[in-house]
From TrEMBL:
Belongs to the LemA family. PANTHER family: MEMBRANE PROTEIN, PROTEIN LEMA. Residues 1-24 form the signal peptide. It comes from the Bacteria. It is a single-pass membrane protein. It is found in: Membrane. This is LemA family protein. InterPro entries: LemA-like_dom_sf (IPR023353), MamQ_LemA (IPR007156). Keywords: Membrane, Signal, Transmembrane, Transmembrane helix.
Length: 203
């Protein structure tokens, strides 16, 4: 290798090493880690909401067997489920406040519809005694708890990421590489989605 070639090779290696150090020092690698963590936390939120949506057809059919004339309530739950499952829940939603808001609204509507269904079910002692209904009730209660935990983890993870985006000097890296603040659950919607439907009929 000639001296010129060796010098060029050395300059390239030094440039790469310096670039790596600068990117690491300015938070670039932390952005990668926190971005992936927020996506993983979001995935768990979506997974638990899907678990809830999967329980609903069986729940509606069981209630229908005892209270078929409660047509309006049963249809409201079915519509709310259809609306909630039609919202795209890809990781890109995390970077789109409007899409995130739409997702929240759909889940809030479904929570409200489920609460109304449980109030209707309270009127039917035979339904409350049905083994299938009690099993579904237990699964729904567990799922609502999982949703609460997953949502809380997501909120904490996104808060950590958003601080990274906004603080100095990592905010410069964020601007340079297009990292933006991610939406979280809003105060106005939090009440609707954080209140699990009343599913305890044992009292």
């Amino acid at each position: 290798m000639t001296n010129n070639a060796f010098a060029r090779c050395t300059r390239v290696l030094l440039t790469l090493a310096l670039t790596g150090t600068l990117l690491s020092g300015c938070g670039y690698n932390e952005f990668q880690t926190k971005d992936e963590a927020s996506k993983a936390a979001w995935g768990e939120v979506v997974n638990q909401y899907q678990r809830r949506a999967d329980l609903i057809p069986n729940l509606v059919n069981t209630v229908k067997g005892y209270a078929s004339h409660e047509k309006e309530t049963l249809e409201a739950v079915t519509r709310a489920r259809a609306s909630a499952t039609s919202v795209q829940v890809t990781p890109e939603v995390l970077n789109d406040p409007e899409a995130f808001k739409k997702f929240q609204a759909a889940q809030g509507e479904l929570s409200g519809a489920l609460s109304r269904l449980m109030v209707v079910a309270e009127k039917y002692p035979d339904l409350k005694a049905d083994a299938s209904f009690r099993d579904l009730q237990s699964q729904l209660e567990g799922t609502e708890n999982r949703i609460t935990v997953a949502r809380q983890r997501y909120i904490v993870t996104v808060q950590d990421y958003n601080v990274q985006v906004r603080k100095f000097p990592t905010n410069l890296t964020a601007k340079m590489f297009g990292y933006e603040v991610k939406p979280s659950f809003t105060v106005e919607n939090e009440k609707a989605i954080s209140t699990a439907p009343a599913v305890n009929f044992g009292k």
